[in-house]
């Protein structure tokens, strides 16, 4: 099915910004306005051109009246190869949820019931950014269907709806089809983001009570390395405080995530040297930028606010320095050069989702699609350098399964930095985890990765993949989801098969 169109994930855009050349270190860190300008230039350069900075829900001056808190409808998107009417029987839904702790925010979501069995877990996927929409992953990575070159939708044989009841949400407010007419609804930190997600989840399980007892998993990629631990912590708090419907949270999975900035920035020179992107003398000079980054990150952790914006500028010089040496590589997949100014071409998504007929089929009417929102990005700037690893040990002690996976050729959220923070994490199983040997992750008899598991913690390095693992390794990523949710990730494939006999 090798798609010829270039794919992209949103998360990326966040990093594009990080990577964009900064003023020399003697100059001030970028202001919010210059970040906005950079964001707009970059998304144009990558062939995304959202018409609006943020989704206000009023392209033509009026938002659709949304009555009850949650409204949901059957999704009627035509998919090539589908016989027509059966589309509504697939258990595909879309909807809007009026976020309660806001002035006017409506969160858009998709819900695809499992193609296999209703008892499969409920899995929510969060796309990175911050400021980009969930549709990027849905249509290019692990959704039930994908966009062909001719803008037809075609079925994805390895969509995660093959093993789960799959939910995508456009969040934070202002991205994708989620909107608010009130600026005060734009989120600035993980508290705001995770409270909105928790409210959504409560309403979702009220809407679908038959799924509330299923196992529940939170998954995502890239900047979702921030969202996911915060959201899982919020869910546990709600469960323990008996705030609402009990959420049967069983695990979190973060793919090529950005979770612990200090350790992950420090890993860039090591990864670049290991992968022969830079030589030893380059390495020595780039490495001199690491101590100031570590110090700036600590100041951000202590003081917050503007110190986090300057920490981002300081640390990002490490990345910029490496890119200055490597030239025109695709930092989401170092095997691939960028062609012209394009590493990815996401324009099909915007073209498709801005067609009136498609918006009507989706049920969003006149609401326009904002692929990535510069306003939302800017609003989250002080969140970027926060360390979200700190919430994960408590999840592990509660026996919440944690899967950290990473495509081996991604530079921006590389496997090495992820492996390093996972190993450095202090929890009761840390010693045993460290002492556990790495074993092959085998799919159809072929090694597709290297896995290390102890208790609830798993680290998987995925072979032949960049930042977008479900796009690069669709079958292996679906197998990963299946085995992990079934508690069989560390079982040998052959043992698993024997076990069935
Ligand atoms: C669109 O592309 C898909 C996938 O390549 C193909 O199967 C289909 O026939 C095309 N549809 C039209 C209308 O050309
Ligand atoms: C390392 O690479 C740089 C270019 O990035 C080059 O100028 C330098 O000569 C190389 N050094 C060695 C020891 O190969
Ligand atoms: C952890 O390792 C210690 C020392 O090897 C061992 O005694 C203990 O049983 C291990 N714990 C678990 C839960 O595997
Ligand atoms: C999986 O099976 C292979 C051969 O069948 C064996 O070499 C390997 O050690 C096994 N791995 C684990 C984790 O048991």
From TrEMBL:
Has keyword Secreted?
A: yes
Spell out the family assignment given in the record's similarity comment: Belongs to the peptidase S10 family.
Specify where it is mainly localized. secreted
Secreted listed as a keyword: yes
Q: Where is the signal peptide?
A: 1-26
Q: Which SUPFAM superfamilies match?
A: alpha/beta-Hydrolases
Pfam families, per database record: Peptidase_S10 (PF00450)
The entry's function note states: Probable carboxypeptidase.
InterPro entries per UniProt: AB_hydrolase_fold, Peptidase_S10, Ser_caboxypep_his_AS, Ser_caboxypep_ser_AS
The main enzyme category here is hydrolase
Where does the record place it?
Secreted
EC number from the UniProt entry: 3.4.16.-
- One of the GO biological process terms: proteolysis
Q: Name one GO cellular component term.
A: vacuole
List, alphabetically, the PANTHER family matched: SERINE CARBOXYPEPTIDASE-LIKE 48, SERINE PROTEASE FAMILY S10 SERINE CARBOXYPEPTIDASE
Q: Which UniProt keywords apply?
A: Carboxypeptidase, Disulfide bond, Glycoprotein, Hydrolase, Protease, Secreted, Signal
Instruction: List the protein's name.
Output: Carboxypeptidase
Q: One MF term from GO for this chain?
A: serine-type carboxypeptidase activity
